[in-house]
Amino acid sequence: MMMMKIVAVFAMGAAVGVMYRIPRSLLVYGAFNATLGWLVAGLLTAAGTNAVAAVFFGSVALGAAAEALARRLRKPATIFIIPGFIPLVPGREAYTTMRYLVEGRYGPAVEMATLTLLTAGAIAFGIFVSVTLYRLALNNVVRKGTDQC
Predict the structure, then answer these.
(1) φ, ψ at 2 (rounded to 5°)
(2) Where are the alpha helices (DSSP H) in the chain?
(3) What is the residue-averaged pLDDT of the chain?
(4) What is the largest CA-CA distance in the chain?
(5) Which domain holds residue 72?
(6) Total structural domains within the chain
(7) For this UniProt entry, which segments traverse the membrane (predicted)?
(8) What is the pLDDT of residue 147?
């Protein structure tokens, strides 16, 4: 069952890449990044980690992988980030929030809306943290290399 989910996430990452017109030669990398982020979040959730924290670490992993792929392939990191974060988007939670609002169940709606916003914020903050740390580390390596000359 888990292998089927991994294949489905990989296919979804590739489909998002096609939808956003990512070059064909890079679709596999974008789909890999989607699978990586989803796997990290899924494994952490299965291990008992809070869902928001799991999504944060999943987005940190996909952001770091996107930056590494961007440097290696000399392409913008956005090409690898966009297909990567789509599997982490809290679509079910947003739908449930709207359903609760329509049904007039405002207490659970507020609770689910809070979870939705926290998860979306965790995605954005995780990508921000990973990109910032990667670039700081890269600048540090470059500075150390120029100091020795």
Answers:
(1) -65, -40
(2) 2-19, 27-46, 51-73, 78-85, 91-103, 106-147
(3) 92
(4) 69
(5) 2-147
(6) 1
(7) 37-65, 77-95, 115-134
(8) 57
What is the amino acid identity at position 108? P
CA pair distance 97, 21, nearest whole angstrom = 31
Q: Distance between CA atoms of 59 and 131, rounded to whole angstroms? A: 10
Q: Helices 27-46 and 78-85, interaxial angle, to 10°?
A: 40
Task: Give the contacts of 129 (CB within 8 A, at least 6 positions apart).
Answer: 60, 63
- With contact defined as beta carbons under 8 Å apart, do 89 and 74 qualify? no
Q: How far apart are CA 35 and CA 28, in angstroms?
A: 10
pLDDT bracket for residue 1 (50, 70, 90):
confident
And the tokens for 81?
């980030």
Residue 110 in tokens: 């507020």
Report d(CA 149, CA 115) in Å as an integer: 51
Average pLDDT estimate for 7-17? 95
CA distances from 28 to 69, 86, 97 (A): 11, 15, 34
- What are the tokens at 116? 């939705």
